[in-house]
Specification:
about 45% helix, homodimer, Rossmann fold, 12 strands, six-stranded parallel sheet, alpha/beta, DNA-binding
Chain lengths: ~350, ~350
DNA sequence: TACCGCAGAGAAAGCCCTTTCCCGCAGGGA
DNA sequence: TCCCTGCGGGAAAGGGCTTTCTCTGCGGTA
């Protein structure tokens, strides 16, 4: 590889001058020398060594991002938001997939710190795991102590700046919708119970049911991987245990799609026989058939906010931006198939005029 | 940030010794000193500066990857394959999204070269653009001249090692299938015509139709973005121009999903009234309703092969691995709705017993 | 006892840049 | 004519790490 001094030698100037030309330094250089340097760069196909540059320059510019998996639509959308702001500000993003492995997450914090990133964004659910949480917070604190900035998306465990989707309210929305449609036998297809996202969404859902005089026993919940196959499998288990279910809440859209697949395989019409509500409103939700009724989270906006927060000025106190969830009614949730013997939930159910456009 | 000499000072040793302990050098260090160093590392939360390390070490280990967009399922699958091999070999991947912008692609080649990657993988379609192709090849050649290794996935324009999906054969498969089902009026929803992927798939398709005595006039092809919305829009244009179409080939699955959306919006039943065939077989294809008939490409395997090639020993001659396409029959392609006046295609149509399970 | 060899530790030379500091020189004012 | 100013350029000092080379001191052999 050609180095700067190769270029300088070829152009007959000092490395200092070559550097100034290449980086467009504010210090003036004669046109004659400038051209000689540029010519040498072209001839030698010179590309500056990024590591040497980062070492020599003091200011750090890249931003590190740790997500579960960029190709998961949930994180893809968030990342889109992150990118948008980062690109505007000329920042490079280093994105790492933790695949929800706590150890890998810890490793990546170190790795990114080692790569001298100016800031760190952690996106994705936190864990119910005190030991891990403590370790992570220690690492994050160490990083912040040396001037690094940290923002988390959707995790409570960190005490600093955060962007939080309102998972609990979203769960509540899903639950209320189904209650109002007259459903009494509601099953839940949930992600891993160690994730705070799962428990938060579940808590909101439970609250909605409780308000309608329903409870949500553990046997109506099945925990599985937070993906399509997990959803398919959990739905099958749920149905095997309780064939009378008239509605299923999937705690994310991937699982909802899996649920739909199982339902189709068992020839259970949606929403006539059984309703399904998803969560997240990822792009594909509107394209499955029937189109998925789901709880929408402003994913791109979450990314935008997080990046703005992390690149903006620091604040004396931690800032927490809570972004609202919103119910998107499409075609997978309909009235419960047959009238309930129990009439307790009649009033709210009547409130909803679904026949109107 | 704590530095190595901070650690050394704190442990009362020289930086050399500290370095040896931290990197597990082969040179022996007394247990006593080793422990002092380790303690200092822990106390100081020391993380080595990756840039300094890369500068000091001579051997390069990271691999650069340029794709259209990691969150596009096509590239997500390929990347999964790349990652699998890279992780096995302890390599770090630097993944860049070009968003099909040739200039950005060129920039990323430089960027990755500047980051001293040991190898470079370019995935995604090439362009019908001689000037760009030449520039890219020059940059790649310059990189290879300094010992860098390059593998491309799905692009003919580079003369070195390559992994090639058989796009042309795949197009042929889609065309033949529809002909055998009796379709005569077939429209195509295509990606940008500047992409070689588009023209390759189109060429195979055209060949299949030609063999059946059909031709594929330009007005039966609509070019649009290679995504869901592009597919929806192109389908609408196609239908407006030619309402009698009985089949649509979408040149990737995202476009096929868009096509399905338009068809649903227009209440055209699939496959009774109109058949749809996609391309790629991305994971979601089986979950749309009706499940998508499509041409499968071994995407993960393409990634695996590419990474193996690039990390393996160099070869004297360029190696090109062509991976086969395969038709996956699901539910969006059925017999043409009404018998053709023209009986020319009868024989092949009869060959296929679609009523059988 | 004298000498050799080697284990274990440190000094120092890079790796490739950026940037400060300094120097020479030309032009302008006194 | 002399001095000061300021511009354009180079020398050199890092930036944080790895690694070779060198040095010290110990145990073992003749």
């Amino acid at each position: 590889m050609a180095t700067l001094s190769d270029v300088a030698r070829r152009a007959g100037v000092s490395p200092a001058t070559a550097s100034r030309v290449i980086n467009g330094s504010s210090k003036p250089v004669t046109d004659e020398l400038r051209e000689r340097v540029l010519a040498a760069v072209a001839e030698l196909q010179y590309v500056p060594n990024a590591h040497a540059q980062l070492l020599a320059r003091s200011h750090r510019s890249a931003v590190g991002v740790i997500v579960h998996d960029v190709s998961d639509p949930y994180f893809a959308e968030i990342t889109r938001g992150l990118q948008r702001v980062a690109t505007d500000q000329g920042r490079l993003l280093m994105i790492c997939n933790s695949y929800r492995d706590p150890d890998r997450e810890l490793e990546y914090v170190e790795l990114l710190r080692g790569h001298q990133v100016a800031a760190l964004i952690l996106a994705g659910s936190g864990y119910h795991d005190a030991a891990f949480t403590r370790q992570l917070n220690e690492k994050l604190a160490a990083y912040e102590a040396t001037g690094g900035r940290v923002v988390v998306i959707g995790r409570h465990e960190h005490s600093g700046d955060a962007v939080m989707p309102d998972n609990r309210a979203g769960g509540y929305l899903a639950g209320r919708e189904l209650c109002e449609l007259g459903h009494r036998a509601i099953g839940v297809v949930a992600g891993p119970r160690i994730l705070t996202t799962t428990t938060d969404r579940l808590a909101g859902l439970r609250q909605a049911l409780t308000e309608q005089g329903l409870d949500l026993p553990e046997q109506r919940i099945r925990y599985a991987e937070f993906d399509r196959d997990g959803g398919a499998e959990a739905t099958a288990r749920l149905l095997d245990a309780d064939p009378e279910l008239t509605a299923i809440v999937a705690l994310n859209d991937s699982m909802a799609i899996g649920a739909l697949a199982t339902l189709r395989a068992r020839s259970l019409p949606v929403p006539q026989r059984i309703s399904v509500v998803g969560f997240d409103d990822m792009p594909i939700a509107r394209d499955v058939t029937p189109a998925l009724t789901t709880v929408r989270l402003p994913l791109v906006d979450m990314g935008v906010r997080a990046m703005s927060l992390v690149l903006g000025a620091g604040a004396p106190a931690p800032r927490v931006e809570v972004l609202p969830a919103e119910l998107v009614r499409r075609d997978t949730a309909g009235p419960a198939p047959h009238p309930q013997r129990d009439t307790a939930g009649a009033a709210p159910r009547a409130r909803r005029g679904d026949a109107a456009p």
